[in-house]
Structure formats: structure tokens, C-alpha cells
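Q: Joint fold for the lines below.
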Amino acid sequence: MKKALLGATLGALALSIAALPVHQAKADEIGACLVTKTDINPFFVKMKEGATAKAKELGINLSTYAGKIDGDHETQVQAIESCIASGAKGIMLTASDTKAIVPVVKKARDAGILVIALDTPLEPIDAADATFATDNFKAGELIGEWAKAKMGDKADEAKIAFLDLSASAPSVDVLRDQGFMKGFGIDIKDENKIGDEDDDRIVGHDVTSGNEEGGRKALENLLQRDSGINVVYTINEPAAAGAYEALKSFGMQDGVLIVSVDGGCPGVENVKDGVIGATSQQYPLLMASKGIEAIKAWADSGEKPKNSDGLNFVNTGVNLVTDQPVDGVESISVKEGLDRCWG
Amino acid sequence: MSDDTRTPRKQQEFEDTLGRSDKNVAAFTPHKRSFLQSAQHLLHGHPTMIPVIVLILSIIIFGALAGPKFFSPFNLSLIVQQVSIIGILAAAQSLVILTAGIDLSVGAIMVLMSVVMGQLAVSAGIPTPLAILIGFGGGALAGGMNGFLVTRIKLPPFIVTLGSWNIFFALNLWLSNAQSIRSQTLDEIAPLLKLFGETIAIGGARITYGSILMLAIFAVLWFMLNHTAWGRHVYAIGDDKESAELSGIRTNRTLISVYILAGVVCAIGGWASIGRVGSVSPQSFQEANLQSITAVVIGGISLFGGRGSIAGPLIGALIVGVFNSGLRMVGVDVLWQLFAIGWLTIIAVAIDQWIRKVSS
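A: Joint structure:
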């Protein structure tokens, strides 16, 4: 019995090794790698889809890697090392640790590989050859402006809850949060820091891990601090859905504005159903497909992508999605948002 | 008997020294215990006392710091609501830890089974009660797999569940496409899945069915562990597996049953989590396994098995909830909340070690 089991295990092991994808690119083929934070977030799932489709179209041999959870830096380092070893021409990366990844990125660039940061800029931003990203500050600003216009005269009496991502406050967290404040007309002081503001309209900040459970708990806690909250900023749409559940359990779902960022399909559905007032939609599929095109251009002619005007990255665009448009803030309808949503 | 036996006969010479010997009857050393030693003994017999004291103290302290709002029935019932899911997982975790094992996969089983229930009921259109039952079955299967690997293949529980954690997590992503099922969709198609989010209002307090479910699970497990032969076997195995086996307990059978039961409890937790979160969320509760271990440890169950009361983890989960709620109300940063819970865990294990050193 034992021997049989052992044999079976070894057999399975041998099979799985044989089945492992081989990353050695053929001489005439352009190799590229996509390294994302996780496979969990539909955002990255969509990014992978976009990259895979474009790579197939252009005849590029794409390998994909992902960290186990958000913040899994080690796996990303290993992934980049494997890419260098495989002789790939380009790497697209959404870094979990935007500073610590820099040395291994430099190693890749020294080996003649084009490194493109997708969605999340490295620190410093020029550590990568190019960055294809949503302007997250702008995304925050749009929902801030919308919320302010929506409240009209009452904006002075707003009581705002901020549902952020995590205690380590990665750059996307800071950019969206501070962008919202600027859009709403709050003095943000240091734009690299959450929590140094002294505007009375801020009830408080709490973290959500970007999921429903965290969103619900965070808003419950902030409501315990001040039950008069009437505007809720959320880092993403799952957190917004959780926040809505909290409002429902407090019997407050009707009088409170929830705004969010992402533009995932369930999120836009929630805009349609009135759970979320407005959300800023970003386009991960576009980031990845443009990234693949850039790698192709680099391999063919040695040309690097150019930044958008006035920015130090390539802006892949952001749109405000709402069915309650306000004067002075450009937006697209929920219908259009649903056509372009990801996930 | 003749009278002359009463008159003492003349002692032989070598017996002279006897008079100088200790005339006390053999007894345990009667030395006095210091206060600390008495405390150590008391706690050895009642390992749940420390968490109870900590819970009461922390409620008093945070109440004083955060003001009357903290004591409001609404807030206290909210804390219970917030810890209910971790509490249910902690109940499952305790079963395994009592056998001197550990289960890193509890959170993954829970989320996976909530996704199974959700996908079956919503996407596959299976009647909701049946979907829930299949979820329970899945929990039993997942737990059974852990138990089989631990007992039959004789792998350490830590490694088995480390592996199965990843396996269940991967299955979760595959089944759900990493996509939540929205609250509104559930309301439309499978409202039964959200049952445990329903609340009963008693005065200012909002008791959710989920909170009641958590208490019920602890009550049932308490009965099973303390008043059935199975329960005594679980403790015996945790204390010393070999002697348990020598005394006729079918240890492997009992162990597998423990893992299966833990899996089912996790699946029940999965159902309850849908009510709590409002949607079927494959991304929530990623650290639930570690939080459940924290609750168990703070609740005074020994990681070395065989000692501790099932009531402990309930108290442990509540302590964590009170700390989080209290610290947030006072306005303490999230990172200092983590800091506080971290120390609490370490101190709890240190106390456990100290109690274990109790002699005689």
C-alpha cells in the first residue's frame, strides 16, 4: 500500500514537472513576461486577458506570473529573474513593493529588457523604462468634484468617511485619497501623506483591504465615531459594496453618497442600482495591450514608448461613470461604462 | 492473645536509632505555595480565567477611554457581529488545536464553500437549500482530506494544511473567477444565503442571526467535548496520542472525525459570512486563518494540545473585537491596532507556557 502510494506520488510529480511550461523562447520568437500582484483581483485577471489576446495577435510568446497575495514581493523577484533567464525582450510589471523591486528591475534593464510598469508606478518612477497607468490622482479628483457638485450648498456641512486600502498606504491609496480631497475642496497639505489634513469635514480614515468584508467593518467603525456621515469615499468598488451593507444595517442607505474608483463590471452594476453614486473607471485591458505593442516596437526597432503630455507616465485614461451627471464634471453614462467595464 | 505481649520487650541494640527517625506518614510535600504559585495552579485548572479577566478589563478600560458610546448596546452588539465569522472559525480551529494539531486552511475552506454555495445557487440555478447542503458536504470533504493526510499518510498537520490552504484558495479563484456575486443578485435569486445577516432588534442592540449561530456552535461543541466519550477522546489524544491509543481509543478515527467536523463548521461559517459581508466575496477573509489562531491562543487553548476550554476562543475572539473597536473609537491608527493584537498574542502564549510548568 505504502509503496503504491509512493509510486503514485512520484509519478504525479514527474508528470507535473514534465507539464511545467518551458519559458525558453525560440530564437526567432519575441518573448515577453507579465508579472502581476495577484491572480485574485479581477483587475489583474483582465490585464492578463488583454495581454494574452494582444500577444497572440502579434505573435509574441507571453509568460505570466503572479504573486500569491497583494504584497508578495518575493515571488515577483523570482518571476523577473526567470524572465531574464528566459531571454525575454520585455517585462510588464505591477509591483507589490514599488521600492524594493527596483534592484531586480535594474538587472533586467541591464540585460537589455524593456521594463514597463503597469498600473502601479515604481519608486522612483523612472526606474522602469515606461509606466502605463491610470492617473489615480485624477480618478480621485473626478469623484471628489462630482460629490461636491452633487451636494451643492451642503458641501460645507459634509461629513466624510475615507475607506482606504491598507495600513502600508501604497501609492495608489494615497493618490486616490488625496485626489478626492482636492476635488472636494479640502486642503490636502502634503499630497504624499494621508491623514495630515485638519478639515473638520473629515470624520476619519479606516482600511478595507479592498474587499467587501473590510469595507463593511471600516464604515461600521467610522459610523460609531460619527453617525452623521453623509459622504463615503472608497478605494474600490468591493469596499463600496461593503460600505453600503454597513449603511443598510444602520438604516442609512438613502441619505449617503458613496463614490469609488475602478470601473469593474459589478461596480458599474452597483452604480446602476444606486449603491454607488459615481465611480472613476480605469482600463487595465488597455494598459496590458499597449504594453505588448510597446514590447513589440522595442524588439523590432529599439524604440521606447513616450509619456503623455505633462505627465511622467503614459496615461491610459479614466472616465467618471454615473447616471447623475453634474455641471462642470465630464462623465459617461452607466450604459457606456458597462460596455467598457472589466471583470 | 496473652497479656504479656503488651509489655514492651527489651529493644535490640540496633533498634535504638529508630526513635530518632521521622515518624510522619508518607505524604506529599506540604510546603506553602507563594501567591504566584497558587495563581499558577488555579489557572492550570481553569485556563479560561485569564481571557475572561482580560476581556472584562479591556471593556472597562476602553469604556473609560472612549466614553459612554462604547458601552451602548448598539456598539457591544456590533462587536459581537464583527467577530462572529472569526469566532466560528476559531471554534473549528480549537477542535484541531486541542488534538495538538493546527489548521491553516480554515479560512480557505470557509471562503471556498461560500463560493460553492453562491455559484451553485446563482450561476447553476440549483435550489438554494440544496446548494447550502452541498457546501456543507464540501466542507466535510475538505476537512476529511486534511484528516486523511494527517492520520494515514502521517504528515504533520502544519504542512498538510499549509498545502491545502493553497489548494482551496486556488479552487476558490477558479470557481469564482475572482469575482464577487453582488448583494442585489443574491436578493433576487438566493436570499436564503444571506439569512445570517438578518437582525433582531432588542432595545438598541442589533443581534444578527450570525451572532446567535456563533454562540450556538460554541454551545454544541462545548457539550460534545465535555459530555461525550468522543470529547474526552479528543482531549486524551491531544494530551498524549500514544497513551490514548494504548488505552483503547481509536485515535486515527477520532482525529479524522475532528478534521471533518472542523471542515463542516467552516462551511457553516461560509454560509454565515455571506450574510455578514452581504455578497459572496472570494477576496474577503484572506487572513482569517491566522485571526482564528490568534483568537484560540488568546482564549487560553494550549497549542501543545489537550488543554483549554472551548469557551476560551469565543472569549479570545471577543477580546480582539473589543480591542479593535476600542482602539478605533479612541482614534488609534490601524498599525498600532496590529501592534497591540500582536503583543496580546505573544503574552497569551507566554502565560500558557508558564502555566504548563506547574509542578505536582
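Q: Anything notable?
A: Chain B touches chain A through 38 residues (CB under 8 Å). Chain B has one domain: 74-356.
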